[in-house]
Amino acid sequence: MANEIIKLSIVISTTGLSGSSIYRLAAKNQFPKPIKLSSRSSGWLKSEVSDWIDERIKASRKEA
């Protein structure tokens, strides 16, 4: 699926970050922003989370 949406629990397990860290980074434009699905539900584009992880890997390898 080209635009797969994943829920917070998957984002947490994929990134290793806490939910509060994810929202804090998103507010600072340092993590993909959630997509509002309904009044009480949000999700993230899997591709954007994967891209963020790839960028973190690249950044950590440049420092070494």
Walkthrough of the structure:
Helix content is about 55%, strand content about 15%. It is built from three helices and three strands. Strands 1-3-2 form a three-stranded antiparallel sheet. A hairpin with a 2-residue loop joins β2 and β3. The chain is globular, with a radius of gyration of 12 Å. The model has no long low-confidence stretch (mean pLDDT about 95). With about 60 residues, the chain is an alpha+beta fold.
pLDDT below 50 for ≥5 consecutive residues: which ranges?
none
| Average of per-residue pLDDT values | 94
**Count of DSSP-assigned helices:** 3
| Element-by-element helix/strand order | EHHEEH
Number of strands: 3
Quaternary structure annotation: single chain
Shape: globular
What's the arrangement of strands in the largest beta sheet? 1-3-2
| Helix/strand/pairing category | alpha+beta
